[in-house]
Write a structure and sequence with these properties.
The complex is a heterodimer of chains A (256) and B (967). Chain A is α+β, with helices and mostly antiparallel strands and 256 residues long. Helix content of chain A is 29%, strand content 27%. In chain B, helix 10 packs across helix 11. Chain B has 25 helices and 34 strands. Classes of the chains: A alpha+beta (256), B alpha+beta (967). Chains A and B meet through strand 1, strand 3, helix 4 and helix 10 of A and strand 4 and helix 25 of B.
């Protein structure tokens, strides 16, 4: 239950508030999960929120070979930004309908996501990097997600960057076009030949299957990644087989 | 904390709690156009424009809104006529919504209008996809989105100053008449819904849209266990909490066995429910009621109630229920109905034999036996269940509730609350969708008990999660079919066994499952001698389980029946090499034939034989085939693979369907009509318009008889103190039953007006004397044969003020000895991803014989919305329980209903017959769209890729597995 609300005017003030031990204080992006389902963010007790809306963290910029999303940029702003890869646009649209996208933020969507999240699946494939305050620490999304509840205590995500000189593809299977994926795959190929394969649709976060170069033998690792991925939504057998199909399609799209 | 924002140009400064949602605060400020539909932002009914952007206020805190400019629907347009005050009238978007029939229940309409306003402000010339994307944040369970999309396109054109090109995007249904033409002035016209103008403005028309001084908020403590005895319950801490007005447990209120199924007396089912009980029978069952000064306090109080449970073994899979040693209803005060047997966990049993089944099978060349399964699904009306109760100044309990059955609610709730019926008044305002979910008297007792306990007004509004965990749903069923067929395609015998799960309570257990057989198994009788004497058997066991109860859901058991029947017909046609349509029509019921079940079963009451008079099924097939392009596509391999992705295959499928229209000899509707001073009329009906447009079509029928435009008929529904009895909105009965009552009342009023008109004309003496019988009504006038006339206003003034004064008014009621079935041919075109099993439905066509269509605009909206609901049944919707009895789906993210961006192309065709048992020839249209979509889609999937499904929804994995199984 939210017991305090703060809307600081400076990042320093925000960082100071978030650094408090009592009450537990967390950043609020759009609030679309925090206001509705705080327990999904591990918040089961009384807590305070720090609203980021006045901090200027809603900018999206192209910087060299990167696009940098301010932590408080909305998903809808990301969708509309010219430099956002088409696969990421599709994933963001699938992540949430327009009314939610207009409030939900890039950082908030990543932190609140689970394994079904199409947006996080593609951002992981892009090997998104987050800048964390205080300390200007940089961390890869893939390193953060498994430990997000511990690593982000007292911390604030400032921005998230993704590479632009890459090819990225996203494929999914769901009960209908706008439904959350049962299985999804995202593949990113760098000019260097580096290829990164992520599977989504299961568990608490999307899964990194491969991150390597040249002559990638992905079929077996992809099948194995979902070999135990059975739940009420789909069997492991189905997910394993379909993941391979979707990764192949992604590979075809990026010119494998 | 203080938050300041500007709403519709007005500055507000409000003290709020840190986590309080903007939705709550806006509604407390009186902006009732902002609706509550969920708590997690999926439904979008709560959307407002914040700094010009459409944002869901249920997941946005009031403090986040500090400094913002907020627009609610209250800032958009106004009624064009407000006496001497000139207004600019409705906004162009609102006008387009009204004119295009884009409003059904109207609960999501304000949010859609605001989303459209945002879109057009940014993009004055949007295309269809852009409109769908703009509306994607707002769920609509009624319309199917086609008409709202058209409304936005039309509004954008008007705002640009362009003419709208109907040819680009039209939603008008095709009407094919196979009846003798009758010229009507109001019936058959695309009249605007009588409630559209208020709904498009977001007026406070719904149950929760009231602000009563000292109103308490109710919450209900729910069981975490599927089956348990409450050994001890201690509410003392909760009662001591400041702001708590009452906590009620089973120890505090009378124990009265009742059923929540809103049906006529006597309830055709067991009485097995108690407001509060010492035993809980499903996760989400009631444990205690709390009333407090705020929702937050009430929730806190729930957490302070100590309950000690003795957990009992549970039955989650209903296949294990019958004769299980675990018994759900072992209470002594359980009241049996007919074949219910609580000791066997049997809520109802049905056994119907028509003809000689075994002889029929013996005469068959082939016997086909298959098993089928349909899931539990939720009505998911966007307005949750909501009720407000209070004592009026005469100490009568007023129940303002979102119900489909106000009169049943009053009758059924009276003994539960310990009040005589006469001390209860049930008011039904507008309803934000019901689909059968509000045929359940499910929440009225909660608020009623708490008002009795506290003496104060109480509001109880369920959360979206409670809609899944604690409300009713469609009965899941496991069905076995056995069919005998001759080599020439003649059906010789057909048998269905149905195991149906009523969940923890037996509400609608008998009648829903009875209709599974009564309609679907009646459609195919066989050819030749079998047509005269079909051989049909229907047996059903309706069992209890420790899942949330099943109940009424649009279609009322019939969609469950047509899934196996139409899959069975398809399998037979495929295996024996018959054309699927010729095979079906060869065996289908025809005009002039006996509805075979009519002599065997009638919802637990005495059956009576009924001949089907009108049945345009063959013409429906002809029309539907043409619209979907059947002849070009069916069996065309080139068409099936016409894509640049070889793994995608197209398919086409069909299903036929038949519903009912009301329950014969039982369903009764009443109407009263009163003439006003200006020649307008008050039409009071007990019928409940739950968004279907029934108020409008009833008004049209009255207007037709009385010779006035619809605008002169002021329709009001319903209030148990003021409107005549009506059994309520279910069984596709309102247009047929209540409509006939309206017509009768109007005829009585017309007779009185004719007498008065003749009197006036004869007093005037401008010609030969006129007999009342010569008078006819047209254009707000009563005409004599020689053309002399008296206006309705003059008749009114004369009768009320001038001479031999009397109030011209009449009351009438109607009950029918017939239940004429509507018929339909449902076509579907799909694309299947043969590698993953994912199915995209590209087009749905429904050709339906619903008799005369009183209002094509509203009727086609029913068909479109129904098809999309049914598409969810086909592809996405199901409720899955784990071994603890917890349901997987608790919100509208996991329970996926179709959004604006994914609805397929749809086409509606009305094949009009004239049903002579109704004065305007109508039959039902509301439920039949639910029946054929799932089997038509599955038949199309089979056509596309060979996947032969026995179970819905057709999830990707099920289709994938079925493709593998085909070998």
């Amino acid at each position: 239950m939210i017991i305090e609300y703060h809307r600081p005017k400076t990042i320093e003030e925000a960082v100071q508030l978030i650094g408090r031990n009592e009450p537990e204080t967390v950043p609020m992006g759009g609030g679309t999960v925090l206001n509705a389902l705080p327990e999904e963010l591990g918040l089961n007790k009384e807590f305070a929120v720090v609203d980021l809306q006045d901090l200027g963290l809603d900018q999206i910029e192209a910087k060299g070979n990167q696009t940098v999303f301010g932590a408080a940029a909305t998903l809808e702003a990301l969708v509309r930004f010219d430099g956002t890869p088409e696969a990421l646009v599709r994933a963001a649209k699938l992540e949430a309908a327009k009314n939610i996208r207009q409030a939900a933020t890039v950082a908030g969507a990543l932190i609140a996501s689970d394994g079904r999240s199409p947006f996080t699946t593609v951002m992981l494939a892009l090997d998104a990097e987050l800048q964390i305050l205080p300390g200007d620490e940089k961390i890869r999304l893939g390193d953060l997600l498994p430990l997000r509840w511990e690593l982000l205590i007292g911390k604030l995500i400032k921005e998230i960057s993704i590479p632009t000189n890459v090819k990225v593809a996203f494929e999914y299977v769901a009960r209908s076009k706008a439904d959350q994926p049962i299985v999804s795959a995202a593949v990113t190929r760098w000019n260097s030949g580096r290829t990164r394969i992520i599977l989504g649709g299961f568990a608490s976060q999307p899964i990194l299957v491969l991150d390597g170069k040249d002559d990638l033998q992905f079929e077996e690792p992809v099948r194995m990644a979902f070999s135990d991925a059975g739940d009420q939504w789909a069997s492991a057998e189905y997910r394993s087989e379909i993941a391979e199909v979707l990764v192949k399609r992604c590979m075809d799209q990026i010119g494998e | 904390m203080i938050t300041k924002f500007n709403v519709n140009g007005k500055e507000h400064q409000v003290e709020v709690q840190a986590g309080e949602t903007l939705l709550n605060v806006l509604r407390e400020l009186g902006y009732f156009g902002v609706k509550h539909g969920c708590e997690t932002g999926e439904c979008g009914a709560c959307a407002v424009l914040i700094d010009g952007k459409s944002i869901n206020s249920c997941v946005y805190s009031a403090l986040q809104a500090d400094g913002k400019v907020i627009e609610t629907i209250e800032s958009v347009g106004e009624h064009p006529e407000q006496g001497w005050k000139k207004t600019e009238g409705l906004h162009s978007i609102q006008k387009a919504f009204v004119e295009n029939g884009a409003i059904q229940c109207g609960y999501c309409t304000p949010a859609m209008v605001l989303a459209a306003k945002e879109l057009i402000a940014e993009n004055p010339d949007p295309n269809e996809d852009e409109v769908k994307e703009a509306l994607s944040g707002v769920m609509c369970r009624c319309t199917g989105f086609i008409k709202p999309v058209k409304a936005v396109l039309q509004a954008a054109a008007e705002m640009r100053g362009d003419d709208y090109d109907e040819a680009k995007f039209s939603t008008a249904p095709k009407i094919v008449s196979v009846r003798e033409e009758t010229e009507y002035s109001s019936v058959g016209k695309n009249e605007i819904k009588v409630d559209a103008v208020k709904l498009v403005q977001g007026k406070p028309a719904f149950a929760a849209d009231v602000d009563i001084r000292n109103m308490l908020v109710a919450k209900v403590l729910k069981s975490p266990h599927a089956h348990a005895i409450i050994k001890k319950i201690d509410a003392s801490k909760a009662r001591e909490l400041e702001g708590v007005a009452a906590v009620l447990t089973y120890e505090d209120i009378p124990r009265v066995a009742y059923s929540t199924a809103g049906q006529s007396d006597p309830i055709p089912g067991p009485l097995d429910m108690f407001s509060l009980d010492y035993k809980v029978r499903h996760v989400g069952d009631r444990v205690a009621f709390v009333a407090a000064e705020s929702a937050a306090i009430a929730k806190k109080a729930l957490s302070l109630i100590d309950v000690e449970y003795e957990v009992l073994p549970s039955i989650i899979d209903y296949s294990d229920s019958l004769d299980n040693k675990t018994i759900l209803h072992d209470e002594d005060d359980y009241v049996d109905f007919d074949a219910s047997d609580a000791s066997r966990n049997l809520a109802a049993h049905i056994h119907i034999d028509i003809g000689d089944l075994e002889a029929g099978f013996a005469e068959a060349d082939r016997i086909f036996e298959h098993e089928y399964e349909v899931p539990k699904v939720q009505q998911a009306h966007i307005e949750p269940h909501v009720v407000v109760t209070y004592w009026d100044e005469d100490d009568r309990l007023v129940i303002r509730t979102s119900t489909q059955v106000p009169f049943h609610a009053r009758r059924m709730i009276a003994p539960v609350l310990g009040l005589p019926i006469k001390r209860i008044r049930v008011v039904k305002p507008r309803i934000g969708g019901g689909f059968g979910g509000k045929q359940e008297v499910q929440i009225e007792d909660v608020a009623g008990h708490l008002t009795i306990a506290t003496g104060r007004p109480v509001i109880y509004e369920t959360t979206r999660e409670e809609e899944f965990t604690s409300s009713r749903s469609r009965h899941p069923m496991k069905i076995k079919m056995k069919t005998g067929i001759k080599n020439d395609g003649t059906m010789t015998a057909n048998a269905m066994y149905c195991l149906s799960d009523t969940g923890a309570y037996g509400c609608h257990a008998l009648t829903v499952t009875g209709n599974t057989g009564h309609k679907s198994m009646a459609l195919y009788v066989g050819e030749g001698k079998y047509r005269e004497k079909p051989n049909i058997q229907f047996i059903a066991d309706i069992v209890y389980s420790n899942q949330a109860p099943s109940g009424a859901f649009r279609g009322y058991g019939v969609p469950q029946g047509f899934w196996p029947v139409e899959r069975q017909m398809e399998r037979i046609a495929n295996e024996m090499g018959f054309d699927p349509l010729e095979f079906r029509l060869k065996n289908a019921l025809r005009p002039g034939e006996l509805q075979p079940f009519s002599t065997a079963w009638s919802e637990g009451r005495e059956p009576s034989p009924e001949i089907v008079e009108t049945n345009a099924l063959e013409e429906c097939v002809v029309q539907g085939k043409e619209a979907i392009g059947w002849n070009e596509k069916f069996g065309n391999q080139d068409w099936k693979s016409d894509t640049d992705k070889p793994w995608l295959k197209k398919g086409i499928g069909v299903a036929l369907a038949m519903q009912g229209t009301a329950i014969p000899y039982l369903d009764m509707g009443g109407a009263s009509i009163k003439l006003n001073d200006d020649g307008s009329f008050n039409l009071l009906v007990g019928a409940t318009d739950l968004g279907t447009g029934s108020d409008t079509v009833l008004g049209q029928m009255a207007a037709e008889v009385l010779g006035v435009p619809l605008e002169d008929v002021i329709v009001y529904s319903s209030d148990t103190d003021f409107t005549p009895f009506d059994k309520g909105a279910y069984a596709s009965s309102t247009t047929y039953i209540s409509g006939a009552a309206v017509e009768k009342a109007a005829q009585k009023v017309a007779t009185q007006m004719a007498r008065r008109a003749a009197m006036i004309l004869n007093e005037e003496g401008a010609g030969p004397d006129v007999e009342a019988g010569e008078i006819h009504f047209e254009d707000r006038k009563a005409f004599a044969l020689d053309g002399r006339f008296v206006t309705h206003a003059k008749i009114a003034l004369h009768s009320l003020h001038h001479a031999n004064q009397s109030q011209i008014m009449a009351v009438a009621s109607h009950v029918s000895e017939k239940a004429p079935p509507p018929f339909a041919a449902q076509f579907a075109e799909v694309t299947v991803d043969t590698q993953t099993g994912m199915v995209i439905v590209d087009k749905l066509v429904m050709a339906v014989d619903s008799g005369v269509i009183v209002n094509p605009l509203t009727a086609s909206g029913q068909v479109e919305g129904g098809m999309i609901q049914a598409l969810g049944y086909a592809l996405t919707e199901e409720m899955i329980y784990n071994e603890k009895g917890e349901v997987r789906e608790k919100d509208l993210r996991d329970y996926h209903i179709f959004s604006s961006t994914e609805v397929p192309e749809m086409e509606t065709i009305f094949v009009e017959t004239f049903e002579s048992s109704h004065p305007f020839g109508v039959k039902a249209v509301a439920e039949i769209p639910m029946d054929g979509v799932a089997p038509a889609v599955a038949n199309a999937i089979k056509n596309a890729c060979g996947a032969d499904l026995g179970m819905i929804p057709a999830t990707p994995e099920r289709v994938w597995a079925a493709m593998k199984n085909k070998g």
